Amino acid sequence: LGSGSRMLENREEELTTVRVQDPRVQNEGSWNSYVDYKIFLHTNSKAFTAKTSCVRRRYREFVWLRRQLQKNAGLVPVPELPGKSTFFVGSTDEFIEKRRQGLQQFLEKVVQNVVLLSDSRLHLFLQSQLSVPEIEACVQGQGTQTVTEAILHYAMSNCGWVQ
Question: Which of 4, 20, 76, 137 could form a disulfide with 104 if both were Cys (CB 3.0 to 4.6 A apart)?
Answer without folding.
Answer: 20
